[in-house]
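Forwarding the complex inputs:
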Amino acid sequence: MTNAAGRPGASMQTIPTDECYRLLATHEIGRIGINAEHYPLILPVNYGLDGTTVVVRTRPGTLLRAAPHANVTFEVDEIDRQTRSGWSVLVRGQAEEVGEEHRAELVARTLATGVQPWAPGEHGTWLRLITHDISGRRIVPGELPPAVDPRAYR
Amino acid sequence: MTNAAGRPGASMQTIPTDECYRLLATHEIGRIGINAEHYPLILPVNYGLDGTTVVVRTRPGTLLRAAPHANVTFEVDEIDRQTRSGWSVLVRGQAEEVGEEHRAELVARTLATGVQPWAPGEHGTWLRLITHDISGRRIVPGELPPAVDPRAYR
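Prediction (whole assembly, two chains):
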């Protein structure tokens, strides 16, 4: 079966919320979307999870100047080029710098994620991404296309 | 040798412009950064190149409503989780919908990229991303850290 303009039999599926969080837990590199310098920048970072909250460490720079209290996104995906399939999860939320004003228990939980930056240099600052919404979509090869849900990965 | 807060011997390098374009040509999936719905959204897309111009195909939806004439970004990366290394290239530019007002030669070149959407459904619209700037950075494992260039991946 061939779709109107797609390839034969591929389908796009919405990923349920609990599966989105499960997929987040399987990776350690994601990408922060943040408005800075007149563009919606995309910055790869490694991350950890405190429950369902994404935690990243960063250093003085673009991200730290622009992130606190701003609406940001966080994206993780996995692509299989051979089968032309894969999934993508997108968190929409707000970035919050972890500082002395936070209660000790939250700071301890944040540090307990054990996020270790891959990049060299100073990464002394912790950011938590407060989730407003999480959504995901998956492209599955070789299945009959289901009814398209236009809200998928809204 | 251990960095102040990083891991031993890793280094961050700026990728020269021509190498950024060469890396773009090695992949077929990237991520568009675009402001829509109050967030800097990150949307995975497959893409082709017309020379140094990124070309994507899309269908009616968030991207097509928000992209034309807007400042957008386009990111491609490759991560090696075992060695904790990898590279990332970021294009900053402006999205432009290819339509009848364009000269036939540009339309022909755009279509010649042969971009085939992985996702099913209608993908009748072509977008070109007019590059304003391109930059990249690479994390190399196990080398002595060079002098850090704070302009890297600016």
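Confidence is low (pLDDT under 50) at residues 1-6, 143-150 of chain B.
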